UniProtKB/TrEMBL annotation:
The lineage of its organism: Bacteria, Bacillati, Actinomycetota, Actinomycetes, Streptosporangiales. Transmembrane segments: none annotated. Residues 1-20 are annotated as: Disordered. Pfam families: Methyltransf_19. It comes from the Bacteria. This is SAM-dependent methyltransferase.
Length: 274
């Protein structure tokens, strides 16, 4: 289905370059969202030619985010930090967490101007339980020490940090391992890491898709990683059941099993700091 153009994006908000494909907006297109421009849609269609699974992987990823957030909320977590939020897509993290615990607090962090505009309008707005912060994950200390984040989230109590479909947008030089270590060091025991990542599949499909992003000079590089490289992000965490696996294999719902959902292009897990 071709998404309709949204009024909100017909004239770009200030700071938004509609001609440079944005990872957040391409992902929005794959999720059938409306906050994307022609350059994003052109790149997305090009990626689909070499990686026809890209749309179902994006959808499987978002579904993992929802199931994992709900599981962690049910485990008693009331504070969530969603790093690399993406364009708002319902249900958002606070909607899922607050279904379980109406008092859950959420901080959204991203560096994409269109994400920030829509997140501030649709997610945080004037409410006090949800905030949106501009932050670049390549500077993890600045993100975690942000005064607004510190005022909203109490790191002396357990938190859940989401790094869902975002670490593959950081090159090794950008320091994804340093980011995860910085997060882990801030966490008290009983905190959770919810993480998914584009998998470097043996057939090279993810790499072919990644080459298209590089070729079109998208807003960030795409770096698929091997199982072992992704597993290392969980050093210092205990992965809760069922451990590290493909997106649709993480606690699938009955509907997913009946529908035969079986995406094989992303890996994910939820870690608990012991
Ligand atoms: C593929 S989307 C994933 C959105 C959401 N986490 C999900 O899984 O549905 C990745 C998001 O990470 C953001 N992002 C990429 N690099 C970033 C960086 N260095 N700092 C902050 N956010 C970043 C993008 O702007 C985009 O919104």
């Amino acid at each position: 289905m071709t998404p309709k153009r949204d009024e909100r994006t017909s004239s770009p908000p200030s700071g938004v370059d509609p001609n440079t494909p944005s990872i957040a907006r391409v992902y929005d297109y794959f999720l059938n969202g409306r906050d994307n421009f022609a350059a994003d849609r052109d790149l997305a269609e090009q990626v689909l030619k070499v990686a026809p699974n890209a749309r179902t992987t994006a959808q499987a990823n978002r579904s993992f985010l929802v199931r994992a957030t709900e599981a962690v909320a049910r485990a008693g977590i009331r504070q969530f930090v969603d790093l690399g939020t993406g364009v708002p897509t319902s249900p958002n993290v606070h909607e899922v967490a607050q279904r379980v615990n109406p008092e859950a607090r959420v901080a959204y962090v991203d560096n994409d101007p269109i994400v920030l505009v829509h997140a501030r309008a649709l997610l945080s707005g004037t409410r006090s339980d949800v905030i949106t912060i501009e932050g670049d994950l390549r500077a993890p200390k600045a993100v975690l020490d942000h005064p607004e984040l510190r005022a909203h989230i109490d790191f002396a109590r357990p938190v859940a940090v989401l790094l869902v479909a975002v670490l593959h947008l950081l090159t090794d030089e950008d320091g994804p391992e340093r980011l995860v270590e910085t997060i882990r060091d801030q966490m008290v025991p009983g905190s959770y890491l919810i993480l998914s990542h584009l998998w470097d599949d043996p057939d090279g499909v993810a790499r072919a898709g990644a080459d298209e992003y590089a070729h079109r000079k998208a807003s960030a590089p795409v770096v698929p990683r091997t199982t072992e490289e992704i597993r290392r992000f969980f050093d210092g965490f205990e992965r809760i059941d069922p451990g590290l696996g493909h997106l649709d294999q993480w606690r699938p719902t009955e509907d997913m099993i009946n529908a035969g959902n079986d995406d094989r292009f992303g890996l994910c897990a939820v870690g608990r700091k012991p």
